[in-house]
Amino acid sequence: MLALRAAFVLAALAAWQLVVVTGAISDDAVAAPTSVARELPAILSDLAFWSAAWDTVRTWGIGLLVSMALAIPIGLVLGSSDLAYRMSRFTIDFLRTIPPVALIPLALLLYGATLQMALLLVVFGSTGPLLLQSMYGAQQVDPQLRDVVRGYLLRRRDVALRLVLPTAAPFIATGVRISATMSLLLAVGAEYIGSAPGLGATIRVYEQTSNIPQMYAYIVVCAGLGALLNLTMMRLERRIMAWAPSHRS
Q1: Quick check: is 33 in a domain?
Q2: Per-residue pLDDT tens for 118-157?
Q3: 29 domain residue, yes or no
Q4: HEC profile of 8-63
Q5: pLDDT one-digit tens code per residue, 172-196
Q6: Is 4 within a domain?
Q7: Whole-prediction pTM value?
Q8: pLDDT at 82
Q9: CATH code where residue 241 lies
Q10: Neighbouring residues of 34: CB distance < 8 A, sequence distance ≥ 6
Q11: What's the CA gap between 153 and 145, in Å, rounded?
Q12: Which domain holds residue 161?
């Protein structure tokens, strides 16, 4: 399987190189993989790159933590009540359809091209999936188990910790993985469009100065960071949730 994946990546790179070299796509718009590869060592050895990467990772990390702190408890509370679940679904679905980039003008007016501006977009965009997954997870509690718990007159805290949370945990884990990837995409997008410090802002600078190979080198780095993040989150999810029936395989 690993060999097949490597072969597919090489084939994609060869196709990319071919369309640029043959002139099917102008090299003023798209840099060839060989040009990008020549730029990567210089970029990775530049302190400015690591400073921008740190800004992006910081925005991603803070935004994801804030999203988790908001979405998980609220989602569990709303999902634990059929009435609250039905009342909140329309509002949540409505807010979830608003593209986070549509809030960039408002965020710029409030905070300017700052970390706070990027965080506003990251939190708004990544809270939705995790909130819904937490609600769905809480809704999956077996009604018979709920009746048993009521019969034993357990405290709400015990019900939440011993029944609702274990049932919802696999859904929450999936939501965290989705939100983690989305947070990174939104962080880079906010930096690119809103000029907040980070990798996205650097990509925009290279685009405006027509440094196409450097621009694509940064894009490749962002793509690699996203792939590494997704792989790491998948492995963490499988390890942490190994006890869950849905993850035992």
Answers
A1: no
A2: 999 999 999 989 999 999 988 887 766 666 666 666 666 6
A3: no
A4: HHHHHHHHHHHHHHCCCCCCCCCCCHHHHHHHHHHHHCCHHHHHHHHHHHHHHHHH
A5: 999 999 999 999 999 999 999 988 8
A6: no
A7: 0.87
A8: 83
A9: 1.10.3720.10
A10: 17
A11: 12
A12: 46-247
